[in-house]
Structures are given as structure tokens and as C-alpha cells.
Specification:
- The complex is a heterodimer of chains A (96) and B (342).
- Chain A contains five helices and three strands, in the order αβααββαα.
- Chain A is mostly helical and 96 residues long.
- Chain A has a domain of 67 residues.
- In chain A, strands 1-3-2 form a three-stranded mixed sheet, with no helix packed on it.
- In chain A, strand 2 and strand 3 form a beta hairpin.
- The radius of gyration of chain A is 13 Å and the shape is globular.
- Chain A starts with 9 loop residues before the first helix and ends with a helix.
- Chain B has two domains: 178 residues, Serine Threonine Protein Phosphatase 5, Tetratricopeptide repeat (Alpha Horseshoe); 89 residues.
- The radius of gyration of chain B is 39 Å and the shape is elongated.
- The termini of chain B are far apart.
- The chains are: A mainly alpha (96), B mainly alpha (342).
- At the A-B interface, helix 2 and helix 3 of A face helix 13 and helix 14 of B.
């Protein structure tokens, strides 16, 4: 499993515990889509988190693979696409 | 007779004693002079004057043995602390640290020069030379801070220089540096471009030897005219699922978004049409997330597109216009200038 979250929403927890092991570690991005969704919900709440997670699912493994940075984890190359890479244009400004 | 013979023998003894004393003294003198000579000759062997020490340190620096150079320059400063090259040695220590990429130590070394000047500690016989090194210490400190990504501290250092100098050339160099610093900051904060433009405007006009103003101005103009995507337009285009992604040149994402959203909308419609309201509701709920996600993603893609273009441009600028320190052999002054590599 890629990514790390200590507190997970029940739905994501169920997916990561029971579906993902059968489905396999196939997500080409880091963090994986389920971890991304969890991070987004934790950071921005359920509505925005859900919207961001949906956007991520639509983008996963396509144009992002050529446009985003790559990172190597355990000799495997992943597309780096964190929540921070997708909220920089409004969240950082709000912070400042 | 007995008395006279006794007197003779007493005189003889005295003579002998005197002779022995004389010989001993003579031997002592000879030995002393020998040891003295040895000591003097040994002293000559270990006598290192300020120039020799400085030259050796400089030689190490030129041979790129920076660690030894730092050590030897420090030795020079310790033993010849009133020498006119003390400031220069301090500067070389900073330079050596900088070349070793030990930027924190370099900052401390350059800071020593700046503070020494402020505190009037260093009394130098060549004020022009010292001034040149102090100015360059400001630039080098700012540059090291920039590389440490301490942008605020880097700017403060330049602003301090601008406050202490009346020399227009130095001011122009400082403004050029600040413009490039803000171009660097613009990689993460687009608002920094306005500050960069402001500093370019501060560079004095009409000096042929200072072409960087026009170059920087042109670059900033080019940057402002970069091809960008309008995030609002991307969002509006996303009313048709995928069109916003396509506007941002993400054709695969656009196609998937269109097919996926269309499929879900059709499925929801069919479910409602067939009277299967629970399924229709569930699909609609999921589709709402993907549809709004498609709009969010398009706006996000426009921002990412603009950031990518801007960063590519800035990286190119820093590749073409990088700050270079040049040790001129003629007057040993150090200049900071923009260089366009072949």
C-alpha cells in the first residue's frame, strides 16, 4: 500500500482493507487514489474532498503521467500527484 | 728561596687556572656561537611572513583545495591580523565555503566582513580595495541565502547594501540581483513578478555597460505575454464534460471525462426512466461528484498549465542569465554580472 494515513473514513478503510488487496496495487500515482481521497477529505472536508477525489479518478494514469513529476518508491516509478499539487492555486492563498 | 719558589709555584698554578678558565670560556663562546648559528639558521627556515602565508592560502584556493585554503586563510588572519589583506582573506574564506556548497558557513563568513565594516574593526590601508570586498560580500551573502532558499533574508541583505551605498553602479547591480531573486520566487508565487518588474525599473537608464536592464525588461515582458489558459473559461467549458480538460490540452483526460460522465448521465436517466429511482438516485449521487470533479479538474488544469509554462520560462531565464562571480586578474576586484552562455 502506498501512502500513509492514520485516520481513514469508513468507506475508504473498507476499500483499502478488503477491495484493494484483491484488486492489486495498480494505481500509478503517489499517493494512490484512495489515499489521495482520504488526504483531500481530511484537508478540505467531505464535499471538496469528494470532488477532488473524483477529479483525481478521472485523471489517474493519463495526461498526468506525462505532465507531473515522477518519484521512485521501492524501485517503482510513480506519478507524484498530491493534494498540495491540486489545491495550490486557492489553498495556499487562503493560508497566506 | 723557599718563599720565592713557593711564589713561583703559586703563580704557575694561577696561570694554569687562568688558562683553563680561558679555554673553558673560549669553548663556551664557540659552542654558544655554534648553537646561536644553528638557532638562527633554523629560525630562518621556519620564518613565514604575511605574504608567504597569504600566497600559500591563495595557491590552495586556486588549486581548488578549498578546505586547506580555509585553514590557511584563517591562520593568516590569526597571525597577521593587522595586515591589509585580512579582509580579502575573510572574503576568500567565504568564497571557499561557497565553492564547497557550504552556504551557511559562507553566509557567516561574508557576514563577518559586512559586520566588520560596520563596526569599524578593520583598519585597512587600501580603502578602495576593502570597499570592493565589502560590496561583494553583500552580493555573495545574498546569493548564498538565495541558494538556501532564504529569500527574505537575501532581499534584506541587498536592501541593506542599497542603504549603505551611494554608488549607482553598485545600486544597479543590487537592483538586477533583486529582479532575478524575485524571478526565482515567481516560480512558486506569480505575484513576485510585479516586484521583479519594479526592481528592473529601478536600474538606471542609459548606461551602455549595463545592458541587463533591457534584457530583464524584455524577459519580463515575454513572461507577461506567455500563452496561458483562462481558468474561468476552462470551468465554463466544463459544462460539457471533458471540454475544460481539452481546453487545457489534456485530451485523454477530456475524452475519459466526457465518456464517463455521459455514461453516468445516460445511466441515471435510464434508471429514472425505468422507474428505478433508487438506482437512479445512487448513480446521480456518484455522477454529481464526477461532474463537479470534472469542472474542478478543468480549472485546476488551467492553473497547473499556467504554472508549468511560467516555471519553464523562469528556469530558462535562470539558465541564460545566471549570476557569475568573476575574479579579474587585473585589479582583483570581483564583479557580479549576467552571463549568457553559448
Amino acid at each position: 500500500m502506498i501512502g500513509s494515513c492514520s485516520h481513514k473514513s469508513p468507506g475508504l478503510n473498507f476499500y483499502q482493507k478488503h477491495i484493494s488487496p484483491i484488486d492489486g496495487d495498480r494505481c500509478s500515482s503517489y499517493p494512490s487514489c484512495s489515499h489521495y481521497a482520504n488526504d483531500a477529505i481530511k484537508k478540505h472536508g467531505i464535499i471538496l474532498g469528494w470532488i477532488m477525489a473524483s477529479d483525481r479518478l478521472l485523471r489517474c494514469g493519463r495526461d498526468t503521467s506525462t505532465l507531473s513529476k515522477k518519484i521512485v518508491i521501492d524501485s517503482k516509478v510513480f506519478i507524484y500527484d498530491s493534494v498540495e499539487s491540486n489545491d495550490f492555486w486557492w489553498y495556499d492563498k487562503k493560508d497566506n | 728561596m723557599t718563599l720565592s719558589s713557593q711564589m713561583i709555584s703559586g703563580g704557575m698554578i694561577k696561570k694554569i687556572i687562568n688558562m683553563k678558565c680561558f679555554k673553558t670560556i673560549l669553548l663556551f663562546i664557540v659552542l654558544l656561537s655554534f648553537f646561536q648559528k644553528t638557532a638562527v639558521s633554523q629560525n630562518k627556515e621556519i620564518a613565514i611572513n604575511a605574504d608567504m602565508q597569504y600566497d600559500y592560502a591563495q595557491k590552495c584556493f586556486e588549486e581548488k583545495d578549498y578546505t586547506t585554503a580555509i585553514f590557511e586563510f584563517k591562520r593568516f588572519i590569526h597571525f597577521f591580523d593587522d595586515h591589509k589583506y585580512v579582509l580579502k582573506a575573510e572574503f576568500q574564506i567565504g568564497q571557499a565555503f561557497y565553492n564547497l556548497k557550504e552556504y551557511k558557513n559562507a553566509v557567516m563568513a561574508f557576514n563577518k566582513i559586512i559586520l566588520a565594516d560596520n563596526a569599524d574593526i578593520l583598519i585597512l590601508s587600501e580603502p578602495d580595495l576593502s570597499e570592493s570586498f565589502i560590496v561583494d560580500a553583500y552580493f555573495m551573502k545574498s546569493k548564498a541565502l538565495m541558494l538556501l532558499e532564504k529569500f527574505n533574508a537575501s532581499e534584506v541583505c541587498m536592501q541593506n547594501l542599497l542603504m549603505v551605498t551611494d554608488d549607482q553602479n553598485v545600486k544597479d547591480r543590487a537592483y538586477s540581483f533583486l529582479a532575478l531573486l524575485y524571478l526565482k520566487i515567481a516560480e512558486t508565487n506569480p505575484d513576485a513578478l510585479k516586484r521583479a518588474e519594479k526592481f528592473v525599473e529601478e536600474i538606471s537608464q542609459g548606461n551602455i555597460e549595463k545592458p541587463e536592464k533591457e534584457k530583464l525588461k524584455k524577459l519580463l515582458d515575454d513572461m507577461n505575454n506567455l500563452e496561458t489558459k483562462n481558468p474561468t473559461l476552462a470551468g465554463i467549458a466544463s459544462v460539457i464534460p471533458g471540454a475544460g480538460y481539452m481546453y487545457c490540452e489534456r485530451y485523454k483526460d477530456g475524452m475519459i471525462s466526457f465518456l464517463f460522465n455521459t455514461a453516468l448521465i445516460v445511466a441515471a436517466y435510464k434508471a429514472f426512466d425505468d422507474g428505478n429511482y433508487a438506482l437512479g438516485g445512487a448513480i446521480s449521487f456518484i455522477e454529481t461528484g464526477f461532474y463537479t470533479g470534472n469542472i474542478y479538474g478543468a480549472v485546476n488544469s488551467a492553473h497547473k498549465y499556467n504554472r508549468r509554462k511560467r516555471n519553464e520560462f523562469i528556469r530558462n531565464v535562470h539558465g541564460q542569465f545566471h549570476l557569475k562571480i568573476d575574479n579579474s586578474e587585473e585589479d582583483e576586484a570581483i564583479f557580479l554580472f549576467f552571463e549568457i552562455p553559448f
